[in-house]
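Box S2. Input/output pair 1.
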Amino acid sequence: NSKCYYSIDNRESEREDEERDSVCVCVCVGIKNIKETLFAFPTNAIKTSKYNMFSFLPLNLFEQFQRIANAYFLFLLILQVMGLTHVSFSHLACRAFVNNKLIFSFNRLRTEKWMDVQVGDIIKLENNHFVTADLLLLSSSEPLNLVYIETAELDGSVAVCFLRPDRLSKRVCCFSKGELRCEPPNNRLDRFTGTLMFQGQKFSLDNEKVLLRGCTLRNTEWCFGLVIFAGPETKLMQNSGRTTFKRTSIDRMMNALVLCIFVFLVFMCTVLAIGNSIWEQQQGDFTTFLPRQDGVNAAFSGFLTFWSYVIILNTVVPISLYVSVEIIRLGNSFYIDWDRKMYYARSDTPAVARTTTLNEELGQIKYIFSDKTGTLTQNIMTFNKCSINGKCYGTVRGKKQHETEKVDFSYNPLADPKFSFHDHSLVEAVKLENPEVHAFFRLLALCHTAMAEEKTEGELLYQAQSPDEGALVTAARNFGFVFRSRTPETISIVEMGIQRNYELLTILDFNNVRKRMSVIVRSPEGKLSLYCKGADTVVYERLHPSCSKLMEVTTEHLSEFAGDGLRTLALAYKDLDESYFESWRQRHHEASTALDDREDKLDELYEEIEKNMLLLGATGIEDKLQDGVSHTIEQLSRADIKIWVLTGDKQGETPREILGKKSKLVQDEAVNGEYGLVINGHSLVRNKMFRSNVPKSFLYSTGAPSFLAYALDKTMELELLRTACMCKTVICCRVTPLQKAQVVELVKKYKRAVTLAIGDGANDVSMIKAAHIGVGISGQEGMQAVLSSDYSFAQFRYLQRLLLVHGRWSYLRMCKFLCYFFYKNFTFTFVHFWYAFFCGFSAQTVYDEWFITLYNLVYTALPVLGMSLFDQDVNDRWSFQYPQLYVPGQLNMYFSKTIFAKCVLHSGYSSLVVFFIPYAAMYNTVRDNGKDVADYQSFALLAQTCLLIAVCIQLGLDMAYWTAVNQFFVWGSLAVYFAITFAIYSNGIFLIFTSSFPFIGVARNTLNQANVWLTILLTTILCVLPVVAYRFLLMQLRPTINDKVFKVRQTKASPPPPPRRARIRRTSSRRSGYAFSHAQGYGDLVTSRRFLRRAPVSRSTAFSPTARSPGKFLPTGRSAGYSPTGRQSNLRQDETSLQMYRAVKDPQI
């Protein structure tokens, strides 16, 4: 354990605020002789830069040379410049970011920089200041030392949370020496254990008394804190990881292809160098009038020729290839940003491509890993159904719920006008003062950690830890049990118009293992009661045996709720004996101040008192799906994309309902296997078979994190993956953020498939970073997932457009671009190779040097960019109508090593035609006037003209979608070629730059011959004819999905509109999990004398004695669909069971 010793000098100063008399200002002397402590604590200096002045060049070059082509270009540059190469850069790409904002460090009120803060210092933070280190909160300017913080940097939540120091804060200025013992530095953001010793007393410290680095002080004028962790030991820095640069599969393939091309280039240059040596030995008669230099022989001439041809033939991979690739990616990213069909007007959120390097990867996704809450659902909970004392409420018999008149809550002036409920019998039971119904809603009004804010009389605003809790408190509010306010010792509620104050004695808070929370209160009559709510399976184990019959009935209701996709919760209570509770309370205090095994000791005490409870009933809360989720999942599944849901929820909750709505798809499509896997969290025995309404294509993986960690072990991970891959859809429940990333890495490692992870919360960040593509949802849980993602938008339904439209188009365009680019450049280069056999291997170029310069820069640049930016085989409506068009991208059918080899062979054929047809046509050919036309310059002009026209026509064959821009680029490029050719071959240019433009008059003297144009026509036909014939035969004999859709498009002008899908009511044999928080609650906070709100406004009782009759309808603030912005899915269970069995196919699915 870490120890921190410090001493305090007491000095008093008066505040300028006259409302307070005086406040103690602590002047920290600092750590007392730091060498005597057990640890040498680090300073608060943080270095987050990737480079410094000395490491920038080597690290940046290392990153750049991850792309093999850059090494290839550097080699050619060195070869051409030969010693004149120099490398320079103007500034560092990244530098250390040092925030020089000053904070107050209390050593006689001196001002220090953040980096100079040390462990043991007491610092002062002001409003909107960034918390600079991990601090023990001491005091603040707010009433009763309340502190508001924003934790967006830590968990993505933009909501303002609240903290309050313990009672020790009032005395911290009065002691002279103290000792703080705490856990060693770790990355647990949700946990802190420590004790503070002073004046012989021990005080317990936990996470609720700590301000973590990364928080921002909000709505608080100032606060004081003691530094306990600084610099790299802070929890934020302990969680920081290295972000890897993501590369697409095409990029990785290009690295391999560039190596192959370089080897092929060396082979061609070696052949030509050997040919030069042989030619020099056999045909060296020219040395009599052009003698060699001394020491130069045929072998050395071949050596020089080798490097000359390396320079000449380097156009097989020009640098313009990678420049064009980046332009294409940038353009396709803009298409995503500009897509109005992916714009969510309700929150004014457009789709954003946060990277430009992964667009084509969107067209190759095979596995999607999705979070549930906030990603597939709205994360807005509404109270839908309940079961009270064996009677089910919320189910409207004989009519659909939306066709039934809503319950009129006008009799309740404090009711939420946005809350809706359709079962009038529950309201009647409340008005008839049914004791079980009253006890049910009294529990909902008392058993929570929500905060009530009442700015004006009757307008309540609830701030709850989870959306479930907010929905339950709002439901109790509407049915007459209104939670009004709370203090550390009391909870004030209005029960059917009567103000009642309950003494809050203890909160047994929720955590991941307990899966329940309880409160112990004393009623105004002096009666002690324990109220508990939690997961049904957990609460059932702690019920009194007399509740067995009621439990059976409630279980049936829970199964019905689960079948409707509701999140369920069981409610129970227990009356306590006064003497027993006082004994238990003393033991609870001792356990809460223990430094070792504090949580285990508290859990034992909680288990002791939460026994023999009486069942009240259960609730069913609806976490509504986002619009279009089911249709999107069906579309993606038709595109052969496997969908895995990784959630912290329990089996039987919304994930199964979401994916179960694909029942039609499951029935129609074949499944590779017939087995399903269920890991239940309460036993280790094999269990019953799937019921008939569970599709055989589902895999449920639910269980404690420890079990899933075992399944993800190296010895078991393959078995887990094999089992999962037998199913169409996989649901992994109760998974932690780390396990989400491990599941993604498992699929990436063994399946060699492109993965996509999508989530909306901070607990999804690790999964988003681990996948090839990360997508963030701008939802209710902050921006952490968005900031870590590659693409972001507001609704899950936009994912189908991102993949089936933008992703497929981007992949198709990039593949067409690469195939065509390699074709035109290999054809261009191979002509040099054939010409070498006719020029004595002298490294003479076959084209004019200006044509070589402008070929990739001007003549063929815009046409291929036009195709790569605007081409589409089908429009977006046909892409949605036939999602199977997405499958070729998963199989790499548009660009692969085989496709590349075909491009090389095609280029070889075209180069033979482009070289030998003009060569044969001009051999021994004369003009109309009888003069010879067969000269080098005329042949060069003819060959390059044939080449350019042939590649432009090939581009036209590859292009499926002609636009005005494409037409302009293609025909404009040909027009520019002829214009430039006639210009640079004119007399005027020759007279100005004689040495640079030697082809004087070649254009007008060659292109005026009819046989030249016939040669161009013949060459073009011979280049294109085999391609047309091959594609025609392939379409007839082995049609692809694109060919089939093309035939359908010929018969239909547009695809039919999608059919309207009827909602199917489904039932479930398994109870859903709990509609409950997935994060540590605020129980200790609200019971530790930390006042959670400002003094309530003065008010009178909201209900009148005659409030039973309908009265005035008053708007009262927050909706029943309450949605907070923070969540954490770090769940685990103690026991698991593995159930494997054969699925039974249901003909109705």
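Box S3. Input/output pair 2.
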Amino acid sequence: MIAAPEIPTDFNLLQESETHFSSDTDFEDIEGKNQKQGKGKTCKKGKKGPAEKGKSGNGGGKPPSGPNRMNGHHQQNGVENMMLFEVVKMGKSAMQSVVDDWIESYKHDRDIALLDLINFFIQCSGCKGVVTAEMFRHMQNSEIIRKMTEEFDEDSGDYPLTMAGPQWKKFKSSFCEFIGVLVRQCQYSIIYDEYMMDTVISLLTGLSDSQVRAFRHTSTLAAMKLMTALVNVALNLSINMDNTQRQYEAERNKMIGKRANERLELLLQKRKELQENQDEIENMMNAIFKGVFVHRYRDAIAEIRAICIEEIGIWMKMYSDAFLNDSYLKYVGWTMHDKQGEVRLKCLTALQGLYYNKELNSKLELFTSRFKDRIVSMTLDKEYDVAVQAIKLLTLVLQSSEEVLTAEDCENVYHLVYSAHRPVAVAAGEFLYKKLFSRRDPEEDGIMKRRGRQGPNANLVKTLVFFFLESELHEHAAYLVDSMWDCATELLKDWECMNSLLLEEPLSGEEALTDRQESALIEIMLCTIRQAAECHPPVGRGTGKRVLTAKEKKTQLDDRTKITELFAVALPQLLAKYSVDAEKVTNLLQLPQYFDLEIYTTGRLEKHLDALLRQIRNIVEKHTDTDVLEACSKTYHALCNEEFTIFNRVDISRSQLIDELADKFNRLLEDFLQEIVIHALQCTHYVILWQLAKITESSSTKEDLLRLKKQMRVFCQICQHYLTNVNTTVKEQAFTILCDILMIFSHQIMSGGRDMLEPLVYTPDSSLQSELLSFILDHVFIEQDDDSNSADGQQEDEASKIEALHKRRNLLAAFCKLIVYTVVEMNTAADIFKQYMKYYNDYGDIIKETMSKTRQIDKIQCAKTLILSLQQLFNEMIQENGYNFDRSSSTFSGIKELARRFALTFGLDQLKTREAIAMLHKDGIEFAFKEPNPQGESHPPLNLAFLDILSEFSSKLLRQDKRTVYVYLEKFMTFQMSLRREDVWLPLMSYRNSLLAGGDDDTMSVISGMSSRGSTVRSKKSKPSTGKRKVVEGMQLALPEESSSSDSMWLSREQTLHTPVMMQTPQLTSTIMREPKRLRPEDSFMSVYPMQTEHHQTPLDYNRRGTSLMEDDEEPIVEDVMMSSEGRIEDLNEGMDFDTMDIDLPPSKNRRERTELKPDFFDPASIMDESVLGVSMF
């Protein structure tokens, strides 16, 4: 027998350092480490002695010598080499005839024939060199190989085994066939001559150790195929030896008289010859195995490794007595860890051939226990082909012995039935079927002919349902069915059994299906029907619909007929039983899509069709679920096919149902009207915007503009009408669209040189502005609890509250946009500003931003709006509490606190806000004295307490302006008022004191702010005309009084009272290249702004545009300014949040940084974005 390699059989991998395969190595062996070969007499050719040369084909004498003979031989050699290589390459001639011709040549002259064979192997490797007779006689194999290596052209890298093209694709099989036929034809004599096989094996062994890939690849393939052929010869010898031994034993056991001694001697001689031949064959196989396989199974090239593993699998399967042992199996086990999928695949296919034969299971027990875990892990291999073969191998292991695989091993394969790769899923489905469904109890043999619930498949169907539910992938029933479709077709097509399990009552002692199990069974049943009717895998499992064969088409028609005949009767019953279960009904209603509708007529099943239509009608009336109604619609669509005679019957039923639904819809139309209105408003809005875009992008006529203007105006009236709708959603939609339309068609529409759109400009009238404001007050400024109840009366969760607040913020932001872009009057913002304190947490950022933007537009109007909001709150308090309210109440304190917050928004630059503050005080004073007390002048005016609120703004007045405001206050006071000291007059006294504080001093030591341009003026001491007396002229603030007499002023110019007057704006010297100097304490206001000697100067016109101290794009410079005696440091911090107080930076950089820190939510460019309709603007 073959001598097994000296490697322990206990699979101790750590001790196999020389032949151990590791997936971390790449098998590089270019340093010649693989040249350690155990070369016996069959592995070394050596130089032929006289005895060997005498065996040539010339009758034992020396071959003829001389130049003519050698030259002739060389030419003949070249021609025959080419012929042999070309014949094998083309593969057209019968290989046996080619081999027979070579054998005849070998018998004639074996040196020439062997030289031809050697050159054949060289040429098959892609080498253009030729081994000459001289080289063959006088050079060792290693020298010949070295010579051929030098002549090898490796520029292209291609050689016959790797070349592309139809001619070379068949070359490998022809090459392998040639070697097999050569050994088969020589197995009776030539291979035992100790010359041909020794030479070939020695040559292939040397070539397989070459660094040239082509030599190594080709010679390894040749050596492995040669080994396979020798294994077949050894197997035949073993069989012949066994037969000879039996004949010998039979002849020897005969009686002496009947025994043929000559026959016994012949049998003994034959057995001896067979034994000698087998020993020779074993020596050859050992030489190939140790010289080639042991080194090349871990070659750096994956193709070479794959060849070795593929062939050893053939040896173990073909000659299991000699090769199927742990000494050879371990090579396959180790190579299962190979990095290349091609090699791992060969390992699995080799093992499949072994496990398929159950007689070999006993020899595979140790291997299975050692490498089982690796095989299980390979089911998840990244190469799908490897995973498929691994699952198939486990299926064979399962069939050989069910105890080998644990429950965990099986579960690792079970879940692969849901794989998106169909071959993997099908292999896993076959494993699942073999494990759970192929076994049948002997007791079931008696019920094989039963059908339905009592049939043999009933328990198997239940098992399938249990498996589907336990897998917890309930949305993939179609994948499970498709995985088992090829191996469990009979089970999956037993719809009669599934139907009976759903409709029939359980037998005695049988456990009924649960609701969840029934749902799973219906889903599986639907998937099997779909698979049978469509004959293609589910979505994601196949590349597309394939063309069905004639047999498959016939099977498809038969299945559809069977499905229709069964479920045409059963489906109405199933729908009646599960009519209230939406999930079950949805799946059941899909069954008619796979019916053969002609059977309703040919099978006279019209009454069952009527029953089905009645059930569908009842389901439509019961359910509101979208999936159920959609399934009903698809069922009607499938049944209403004009090609079939049932069309009229189904169409009448469908029409009746539609009529009933239309009547019900008309009755409930009012409920749906609001939703329709919302969508109609949206659609009309988009139509107007599209028309505007069309007009803007292309040249348009005046008629187009007028048409769009008319449509827009009418649409605005419609939206204004729906502002008073009873439905809140409709009102919100109308409000949002109105704000969007007013914003788009405002004066901003003409920006960017689009003056031709002027006819489209639309300004809302007072009534529309009032309704928009009322909507904001009614739907935005509300308590959270008022808008947080769901339909069932329970309070919504926190997420719903946040969503409602987000919606209200969007509504407020949309209206505030109209304010800051002057689409509506600024005084409408008073109702917004007065909510600043109450709703600070919800809308404080929006209201604050609106204040900032309106102040940038018009400081005076913004101030008037702020004081108006305070007046409104004051009037609301009077209406609620009367004129005799408590000034210490929380309501009045809240108004004062709001006034204080408003005052802080003016920042520290008093020069910049001077005129606005003065106008604010003017309006406040007029409001306080507007309503005289009916009881007489001895009693305070009804609104006198408002002065207490107004005093919060006194600190924002310049000292000289305080005097002016005080003079204006005295115009409304009588002499008696100035003498009253009762508590009711405290607001007046407090306000007067706030104006007189610092107002009597005619000098100013520090100005509050300067221009943000960063300019400073060198202080120059004025030289008074008379002595050292310092005369500081005051500053007079002249403000127009908005009253019936437009020509009246705060102070008459003819007044004898010498109030300070303000000088004209001085021309500031630019010092941008100089460092600014801070004012020294001794520098008076007079030294900075030189005053003229005249007392009566022309009042400063604050409405004039130009380079003045109140210029809008100037930025204030922050200086050390002491706060009032109240010492409210937190007030300073709050005031810094507004644009009226900025960091001392150059104007351009300051604006840029503000843009980066805080986006301008009122940018006209954002008009057309989603901020108005659905995105928070702040």
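Caption for Box S3: The CA atoms of residues 934 and 985 lie 16 Å apart. The radius of gyration is 53 Å.
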